[in-house]
Amino acid sequence: MIDLLVDKIQALQNPTVVGLDPRLSMIPEHIRQQAFETYGQTLKGASEAFWLFNKEIIDAVYDLVPAVKPQVAMYEMYGADGVDVFIRTIQYAKEKGLVVIGDIKRSDIASTAQAYADGHIGEVTVGETAYAPYQEDFITLNPYLGVESIEPYFPHLTKYDKGLFILVKTSNPGSGEIQDLPAGEAGKPLYEVVGGLVEKWGEPFRGRYGYSDIGAVVGATHPEQGSRLREILPHTFFLVPGYGAQGATAQDLAGCFDQNGLGAIVNSSRGIMAAWQKDSYAKMFTPEEFAQASRAAVLDMKEDLHKAME
Ligand SMILES: O=c1ccn([C@@H]2O[C@H](COP(=O)(O)O)[C@@H](O)[C@H]2O)c(=O)[nH]1
């Protein structure tokens, strides 16, 4: 799956992933009204508002970006209706030719990890029929439980052509409290040790570009660590969150790319979905044109990333 992602990044000349993290507060009034008139102010009403919102944003950006990253938490908080919209969003994005990164950050003992693996990137069999309930192309995982919590996903990478992004150095301000602790030889920080494991786990899954189906999450908000990780993990592709709403600039994350301008895909969720609420875009687009504002934000981000990589 990493080859397909890199092919798409190359074809579009855009290493951007649009994060699909809808919140009611960022949904324009006309969309909320439409959903609430049909379903009431209920969990289903909120979820359907997300669906209408996501669908329009996908329609506005699918020809510009290689991938989208729905964040499961935003959907799960509305229960079964929210999860239904998470699944419909994945299906719709895939129909539009987008690679889908399910940001689900799972972590558990092997037998439970197997269930996550089968459900999210594999198949579950009921009677004689095999179902693929979620169908993300990549999912995010937390490696804290060690290799046997990650291994159950490995056969699915080849069998179903899938990929993983494993948390290595996260973008949150407090990530250093645990991730920067000296853990390896010569006081190496924990994130370097985890990064080394990810590089090793990924070895059998390398593709045409030398990158593995097993990638790493590396926050844009930690520029020095990002550059260091790029140096020591030459075969590990990075999913880089933290640009925009969390304060990281294109310059901050430039070190996550390799000398060919590959090796990373940069996420922006609020910065793109809620662009219509920002003064700079609100001057140009009405709330009804929210998806066009998102499109403009994607084009601006692309230009910004290119400038930083020059
Ligand atoms: O280290 C991490 C890992 C994941 N995320 C997720 O990325 C998006 C960021 O959203 P923005 O609105 O662009 O800040 C969100 O889904 C996070 O859960 C992260 O930010 N940092």
User: Shape, please?
Assistant: globular
Question: What is the radius of gyration computed over CA atoms, rounded to a whole number of angstroms?
Answer: 19 Å
| Total beta strands | 10
Query: What compounds sit in this structure?
Result: the ligand O=c1ccn([C@@H]2O[C@H](COP(=O)(O)O)[C@@H](O)[C@H]2O)c(=O)[nH]1
Trace the largest sheet across and list its strands.
1-2-3-6-7-8-9-10
Q: Spell out the helices and strands N to C.
A: HEHHEHHEHEEEHEHHEHEHEHHH
- Summing up helix and strand content along with how strands pair, one would put the structural category as alpha/beta
CATH topology: TIM Barrel
Oligomeric state:
single chain
How much strand? Answer: 15-25%
Please count the helical segments.
Answer: 14
Report, as a whole number of angstroms, the end-to-end distance. Answer: 27 Å
Which whole number gives the mean pLDDT? Answer: 98
What is the C-level CATH assignment?
Alpha Beta
**Percent helix:** 40-55%
Q: Please give the domain count.
A: 1
CATH superfamily: Aldolase class I
What is the makeup of the main sheet? 8 strands, parallel, barrel
Descriptive labels:
310 residues; alpha/beta; TIM Barrel; 14 helices; 15% strand; binds ligand LLZGTKA7
